[in-house]
C-alpha cells in the first residue's frame, strides 16, 4: 500500500484570533495529531516521500501557515512545552526534506515570507543558516524572483508612506532584515541597484520618528554587511553603494551637519569596524576603499554627537576573585562544577531540534564529536551515529547532586585535638617599629632609681651626693671632655663683628661695592639695563612720537616691531611708557640730562639718590614739583593752588577754594601754573603784613621760653 493512500491530510494552523477560542484540552489534541502526522512524513523512506510530496498540498499549506504564524510571538500558548518543541522540530525536518529532496520544490516554501518566518521560528540556529544556504544554492532564481517582487512593493509603499494610516511596509522591512541577516544573498538582492537605497534615504529624511528610522537603519546596515558576509565578498558593489550614500548625505560640503541615513549607519553601528577589518585582510586592497574609509571616519567624527550607539560595547568579564561569602552551590563537590557553561549552550542548541534527547546523552555525543553540534545534528538526521552511541540511554540526564548529600565543608585546616593539648604555645611575636628608639616624654618614668634607663625624666639633681670637688678630681674622661671643649672653641671667632653698613653702595653713589653675592643666588642683570631700555625708548619718543600711537596700524608697523625686539617689551608696555612719560615732566628732564651729560652713556651708571628729608604727604620725591608741602596730606583737600582747605569752601591757602577732590589739579581755573603763583606769593608776603605776623609770633614764643603749645 502506498504511503499517500493511508495518511490523512494536515490541517493548517489557525490564526491567533481562532486559537483564543479553542479550549486548552482540545488544543492539546490538535498538537498531538500534528505531531503524529508530521512524524509519519518525516520518517517515510526517501523514494516514497518523493512520490508522496509531489501531490501533498496539505503539508505545504500546513508548513506555510505554520511559518507565517511564527512571525507572531503568540503562535502557541506555551512555546517551551515539550509537545510544542516537538512540533517545531518536526516542521524543520519536514521542510528540510521538501527543500533539498523534492524536485520540483513547491514554490510556496520558497516565498520570502515563509523563509523569514523560519528565521523567526528558529532564531540564532546554525542548522537553519546551513539549510538556508543549501536552499539558496539550489533555488537561487526562485528566491531571487520572490525578493524582487517584495523589493518593488517596498519601494512603492515607502514612496507613499503615511504614518497616520496603517501600513505593513515597516513589518515587511523588519522581516527582510531578519532574512538578510540569516541569508546574505537576500541582502545583496535588496542592495542591488540604487532605486531601493535611494527610496530608503528619502524616507529617512522625510520621517523623523525614531521607530521608523530604526527600521530603515537596520535594513540598510544588514544589507551592506551582506556584501561582506557571503562566501565571495562583493567589495566593489559595496563601495559603489557607499559612494552613492556619501553623495546623498553631502559629505565634505560646508552645509550644516544634520542626521542622515549614512551618519546613523556609521555612528550607531559597527559597520566601519567591519569594513576596516575586511580591507586590512584583503589580499588585493583597493585604494578607493581606503580613501572612502578615511572620509567616512572624518564624517563620523563630525556627526557623532547627533546619534547614540545601538550596539552597546561589550563589557569586560568581571574576574571572580573568590572573596565572596560561600553559598550552597560552593559546597557541592568539584565534579558538578566541571561542566562549563559553553557546553550547556551547545546542549541547548541540539535539544532545540531534538527535545526528546536527554542532556546527559547529548553531552556524551558532544564528547564523542568534539563539541560540534552541526555534525551531531547531521548524524541524528541521517541516523548514522556510531554503534556505541546508539546503545546508550537517549533519555539520560546530567546528574544534579544535592547539597544535603554532601559533607559540610570546613574552611579551617585540619587539626588534632591531642596535639593542641600537649604542645606548648609559643610566645606571641614582639611588635617592632621604626619609632621605638625615639623618646616620648609622656611615657618617661618619674623615677631616678632605675639605672638601666639613662633617659628617664627626673626631678631635681640626678645624683645628690655628687659635688664639684669630686667632678674635678675625676680624671677618667678628662681627655675626651677637653677635646670636646677645644673643638667647640675652634668654631667660635671672637674677632667677628657685625657688618658695618655705614658706607653702603647707595650712600656713596655706587663707587664702592663691598657686598659679595652668594654663590647660589641667581645672577642679576646689569645695573644699567633698565636705564638703557628707558633711554632707547626716550630716543625713539623724541625722534618719532607717532611710534607710540595706540592703534592697530602702528602696532603692525616695522618700526614698532624693531623697537619691541630692541627693548623686549610688549605693545601695551611701550604705549603705557609713553603715556606715563607725557604726564611726568620731571622724568623727561631726567632722561634729557642723562642723554646730554654723558653722550647717551655718561650718566647711566649714576644712581638717583632719593631725598632723605621728611616731607608730609610726598611719596615720590615730587616735593619740588610746585605742589607745596601740604598739598596732599589729607583726603578731601585740593584746589587750584594746592591749599589746605577741606571740602568746598574750606579754609585754604592759594589761589583756589578747597575742593572735594583728592589731590590738587595741575593748573588753576585761569590756566596759570600753581608753582609760579606760589613764587609770586612768597615774594609779596612782606607787603601783605605776613612778614610782620611771623615776627610777632617769634617774639611771643621767645617771651614764653619756647613753651607755647
Explain what the structure shows.
With 709 residues, the protein is mainly alpha-helical. Among the domains are: 1-110; 143-311; 336-391, Ubiquitin-associated (UBA) domain (Helicase, Ruva Protein, domain 3), CATH 1.10.8; 528-597, no CATH class. It is 50% helix and 0% strand. It has 31 helices and no strands. The chain has helices spanning 3-6, 16-19, 24-42, 46-53, 57-70, 82-100, 112-121, 126-138, 140-159, 169-182, 184-191, 195-206, 210-229, 235-249, 261-268, 271-281, 287-303, 341-353, 359-368, 373-382, 387-390, 417-422, 468-473, 478-490, 529-543, 552-556, 558-567, 571-582, 585-597, 674-683, 690-703. The model is unreliable at 403-408, 417-422, 510-525, 600-604 and 618-666 (pLDDT under 50). Pfam families: CUE. Residues 342-385 form the CUE domain. Residues 688-702 have a biased composition (Basic residues). This is CUE domain-containing protein. Residues 394-433, 598-709 are annotated as: Disordered.
Amino acid at each position: 500500500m502506498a504511503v499517500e493512500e493511508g495518511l490523512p491530510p494536515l490541517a493548517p494552523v489557525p490564526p491567533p484570533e481562532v486559537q483564543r477560542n479553542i479550549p486548552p484540552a482540545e488544543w492539546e489534541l490538535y498538537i498531538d495529531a500534528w505531531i503524529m502526522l508530521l512524524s509519519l512524513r518525516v520518517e517515510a523512506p526517501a523514494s516514497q516521500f518523493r512520490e508522496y510530496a509531489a501531490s501533498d498540498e496539505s503539508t505545504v499549506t500546513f508548513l506555510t501557515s505554520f511559518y507565517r504564524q511564527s512571525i507572531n510571538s503568540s503562535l502557541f500558548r506555551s512555546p517551551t512545552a515539550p509537545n510544542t518543541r516537538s512540533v517545531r522540530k518536526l516542521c524543520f525536518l519536514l521542510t528540510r526534506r521538501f527543500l533539498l529532496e523534492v524536485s520540483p520544490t513547491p514554490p510556496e516554501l520558497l516565498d520570502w515570507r515563509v523563509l523569514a518566518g523560519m528565521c523567526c521560528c528558529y532564531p540564532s540556529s546554525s542548522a537553519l543558516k546551513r539549510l538556508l544556504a543549501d536552499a539558496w544554492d539550489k533555488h537561487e532564481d526562485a528566491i531571487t524572483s520572490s525578493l524582487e517582487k517584495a523589493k518593488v512593493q517596498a519601494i512603492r509603499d515607502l514612496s507613499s508612506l503615511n504614518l497616520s494610516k496603517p501600513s505593513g511596509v515597516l513589518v515587511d522591512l523588519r522581516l527582510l532584515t531578519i532574512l538578510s541577516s540569516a541569508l546574505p544573498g537576500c541582502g545583496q538582492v535588496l542592495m542591488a541597484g540604487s532605486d531601493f537605497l535611494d527610496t530608503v534615504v528619502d524616507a529617512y529624511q522625510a520621517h523623523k520618528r525614531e521607530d521608523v528610522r530604526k527600521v530603515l537603519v537596520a535594513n540598510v546596515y544588514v544589507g551592506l554587511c551582506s556584501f561582506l558576509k557571503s562566501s565571495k565578498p562583493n567589495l566593489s558593489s559595496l563601495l559603489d553603494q557607499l559612494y552613492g550614500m556619501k553623495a546623498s548625505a553631502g559629505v565634505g560640503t560646508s552645509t550644516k551637519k544634520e542626521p542622515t541615513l549614512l551618519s546613523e549607519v556609521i555612528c550607531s553601528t559597527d559597520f566601519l569596524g567591519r569594513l576596516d577589518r575586511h580591507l586590512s585582510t584583503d589580499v588585493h586592497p583597493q585604494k578607493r576603499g581606503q580613501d572612502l574609509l578615511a572620509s567616512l571616519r572624518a564624517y563620523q567624527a563630525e556627526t557623532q554627537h547627533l546619534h547614540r550607539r545601538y550596539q552597546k560595547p561589550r563589557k569586560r568579564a568581571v574576574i571572580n576573585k573568590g572573596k565572596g561569602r560561600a553559598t550552597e552551590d560552593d559546597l557541592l563537590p568539584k565534579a558538578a562544577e566541571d561542566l562549563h557553561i559553553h557546553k550547556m549552550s551547545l546542549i541547548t542548541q541540539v535539544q532545540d531540534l531534538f527535545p526528546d534527547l536527554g542532556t546527559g546523552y547529548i553531552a556524551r555525543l558532544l564528547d564523542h564529536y568534539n563539541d560540534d553540534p552541526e555534525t551531531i545534528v547531521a548524524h541524528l538526521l541521517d541516523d548514522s551515529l556510531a554503534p556505541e552511541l546508539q546503545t546508550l540511554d537517549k533519555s539520560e540526564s546530567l546528574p544534579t547532586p544535592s547539597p544535603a548529600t554532601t559533607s559540610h565543608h570546613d574552611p579551617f585546616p585540619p587539626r588534632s585535638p591531642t596535639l593542641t593539648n600537649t604542645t606548648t604555645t609559643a610566645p606571641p611575636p614582639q611588635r617592632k617599629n621604626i619609632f621605638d628608639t625615639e623618646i616620648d616624654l609622656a611615657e618617661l618614668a618619674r623615677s631616678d632609681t632605675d639605672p638601666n634607663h639613662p633617659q628617664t625624666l627626673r626631678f631635681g639633681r640626678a645624683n645628690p651626693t655628687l659635688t664639684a670637688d669630686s667632678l674635678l678630681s675625676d680624671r677618667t674622661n678628662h681627655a675626651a671632655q677637653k677635646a670636646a671643649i677645644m673643638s667647640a672653641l675652634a668654631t667660635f671667632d671672637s674677632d667677628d663683628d657685625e657688618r658695618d653698613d655705614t658706607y653702603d653702595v647707595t650712600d656713596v653713589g655706587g663707587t664702592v661695592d663691598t657686598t659679595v653675592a652668594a654663590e647660589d643666588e641667581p645672577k642679576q642683570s646689569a645695573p644699567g639695563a633698565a636705564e638703557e631700555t628707558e633711554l632707547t625708548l626716550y630716543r625713539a619718543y623724541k625722534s618719532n612720537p607717532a611710534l607710540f600711537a595706540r592703534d592697530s596700524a602702528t602696532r603692525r608697523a616695522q618700526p614698532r616691531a624693531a623697537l619691541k625686539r630692541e627693548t623686549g617689551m610688549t605693545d601695551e608696555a611701550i604705549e603705557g611708557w609713553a603715556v606715563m612719560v607725557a604726564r611726568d615732566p620731571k622724568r623727561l628732564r631726567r632722561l634729557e640730562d642723562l642723554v646730554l651729560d654723558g653722550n647717551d652713556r655718561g650718566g647711566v651708571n649714576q644712581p638717583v639718590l632719593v631725598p632723605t628729608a621728611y616731607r608730609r604727604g610726598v611719596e615720590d620725591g615730587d616735593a619740588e614739583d610746585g605742589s607745596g608741602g601740604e598739598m596732599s596730606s589729607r583726603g578731601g583737600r585740593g584746589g587750584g593752588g594746592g591749599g589746605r582747605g577741606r571740602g568746598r569752601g574750606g579754609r585754604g591757602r592759594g589761589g583756589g577754594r578747597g575742593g572735594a577732590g583728592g589731590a590738587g589739579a595741575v593748573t588753576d581755573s585761569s590756566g596759570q601754573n600753581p608753582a609760579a603763583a606760589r613764587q609770586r606769593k612768597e615774594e609779596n608776603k612782606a607787603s601783605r603784613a605776613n612778614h610782620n605776623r611771623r615776627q610777632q609770633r617769634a617774639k611771643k614764643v621767645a617771651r614764653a621760653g619756647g613753651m607755647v603749645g
